[in-house]
Specification:
This protein is mainly α. The chain has two domains: 1-76, Multidrug-efflux Transporter Regulator, Chain: A, Domain 2 (Orthogonal Bundle), CATH 1.10.1660.10; 79-118. Helices cover 61% and strands 5% of the residues. The chain has five helices and two strands, in the order ααββααα. The protein has helices at residues 21-28, 32-41, 59-74, 79-93, 95-117, and strands at residues 48-50, 54-56. The chain has a two-stranded antiparallel sheet. The mean pLDDT is 85.
Length: 118
């Protein structure tokens, strides 16, 4: 079996609205049981569930799965590290959160500066 990190060429995402777990598995080069596990680990990943608890992923879900795959298999993040990175990235997209993070960074840098002056 090929190492997932070596397979960087993923097929283009078709112009459909919903994808089954099998289709997403092929589009992202990840097995279906891994996708189900990632749903438990990444709160942002919430496919629509319909008849008989069948999962239907939307385009944004597929793009998120590809991002998770890249973080884990290519960049070498752990599950918790990838989860934290995605949370921080989502928070930084919100202007209010971005301002709060910048203020916190400035405060921490000021604290470091005080320590260096001592």
């Amino acid at each position: 079996m090929l190492d997932p990190a070596e397979n960087l060429e993923l097929p283009p995402i078709p112009g459909k609205r919903y994808f089954t777990i099998g289709e997403v598995s092929e589009l992202c080069a990840v097995k279906p049981h891994v996708l189900r596990y990632w749903e438990q680990e990444f709160p942002q990943l919430k496919p629509v569930k319909r008849r008989g608890n069948r999962r239907y992923y939307q385009r944004h879900d597929v793009m998120l799965i590809r991002q998770i795959r890249s973080l884990l298999y290519v960049e070498g993040f752990t599950i918790s590290g990838a989860r934290n990175k995605l949370i921080v990235e989502n928070d930084l997209n919100d202007p209010g959160q971005r301002a709060a993070v910048i203020k916190q960074l400035i405060k921490e840098l000021d604290d470091v500066l005080v320590l260096l002056k001592e």
